[in-house]
Design goal:
- It is a single chain.
- This protein is an all-alpha fold.
- It has helices at residues 2-25, 33-48, 56-78, 92-100, 108-112, 130-148, 155-185, 202-209, 212-234, 240-263, 270-292, 300-325, 328-361.
- Residues 108-126 have low confidence and may be disordered.
Length: 362
């Protein structure tokens, strides 16, 4: 684990240096193809760096942050668009964290213009109450006895617990990153999840509640260009269908890449099947809503139960097996054990030091 931490620090030192270069280049190279060529070595490097890490907690998150989110932001930045565009800020202190971390600056005015605002209670700085995360962590703690005796628990129940664990682990991890950025910079940030278990449709789940930083990046990087092209071919009314499906295709490929970083195993394309299936279903949902034009609505309780049930069923069928194929369960267990051992050793040192000081003072 010590070697992993050393590699982790080296990777992020390289990330900071590389992003400083990108920020400097933007002052002399105009937006467009020339800037893209200038920063393309950094984009390639960010695909290679996660190969230095092997853990889920450090390697998995790092690959998500830099190989996916940061690279997409840099491509947009090359053409003067996205959260790193000069219209947003020219400060290096703003550029680096926004580029390489899954954060979105909270804009109350912008939030009020959304058709459907966030469902969760957020504080004046744009983050959820700490109690929200505490309760979710307690749910995971409650799962631990079942994990220890999983041979006596039905496999479907255990797998459902794993899915909840993945959701809570990802949300809490991103919240911790956001809290650290907020503490260092003082800027308000938006939460990355909006209680996805309250979704009323697949569109609601993927577009407004689940991992919103990904949605915010895929929209300008994939959705808008594909919709623009599709509108010339099939018209503006139906252009959203291929654009939405393209987002799921890109997400599928990036998930395959991240799972490879975690497990270093040949992909079996289950996670790709999961996202393509949902892409087709979301496209069908969009088409049905356009065809019905508001003439028919299922009750929210019914549509929500159907959507969440479908998501869980397909995740058990396709997503979770792909994650377990990467040895995620064994790695998570060993990493958790390493953290517990580290805390125990640290506590022993603190306790011994305190006892020595107390004896010396007498």
């Amino acid at each position: 684990m010590e070697g992993e931490i050393s590699n982790f620090m080296t990777v992020w030192a390289v990330v900071v240096i590389s992003l400083t270069y990108c920020h400097t280049i933007s002052k002399t190279v105009p937006a467009g193809t020339r800037r893209l060529l200038a920063i393309s070595p950094v984009i390639v490097l960010f695909f290679i760096l996660p190969l230095s890490l092997t853990t889920i907690s450090l390697g998995g998150l790092t690959s998500f942050f830099i190989a996916w989110l940061c690279n997409f932001k840099l491509v947009l930045f090359a053409f003067g668009k996205g959260p790193l565009s000069p219209s947003r800020s020219c400060s290096l202190a703003y550029f680096i964290p926004v580029a390489c971390l899954p954060i979105k600056i909270h804009n109350p005015v912008e939030s009020t213009k959304k058709e459907e605002g966030p469902c969760s209670e957020i504080n004046e700085r744009g983050l959820k109450s700490p109690m929200n995360y505490v309760v979710k962590c307690l749910v995971i703690v409650a799962f631990l006895p079942a994990y220890e005796r999983k041979v006596r628990v039905h496999p479907v129940i255990i797998n459902l617990m794993y899915l909840v664990h993945v959701y809570v682990g990802l949300e809490v991890s991103l919240a911790v990153v956001g809290a650290m950025v907020r503490a260092l910079t003082g800027i308000g940030l938006e939460p990355q999840f909006e209680e996805p278990y309250l979704s009323t449709s697949l569109q609601d789940f993927w577009g407004r509640r689940w991992n919103l930083m990904v949605t915010d990046i895929l929209h300008p990087a994939v959705y808008l260009p594909v919709r623009s092209i599709s509108s010339r071919v099939i018209g503006r009314r139906w252009a959203a269908l291929p654009a939405s499906f393209a987002c799921f295709l890109v997400s599928a490929l990036m998930h395959e890449l991240i799972f490879y970083y975690i497990g270093r195993k040949e992909p079996r394309w289950e996670v790709t099947s999961f996202f393509l299936l949902h892409g087709l279903c979301v496209a069908a949902e969009i088409a049905a809503k356009k065809a019905l034009a508001g003439r028919f609505h299922l009750p929210r309780a019914v549509s929500g139960a159907m959507a969440v049930g479908f998501i869980l069923a397909t995740a058990l069928w396709l997503f979770l097996p792909a994650l377990l194929w990467c040895d995620a369960e064994d790695k998570a267990r060993s990493e958790a054990t390493a953290v517990v051992d580290f805390v125990k050793r640290t506590w022993s040192v603190v306790e011994y030091t305190y006892s020595s000081i107390m004896k010396a003072s007498r």
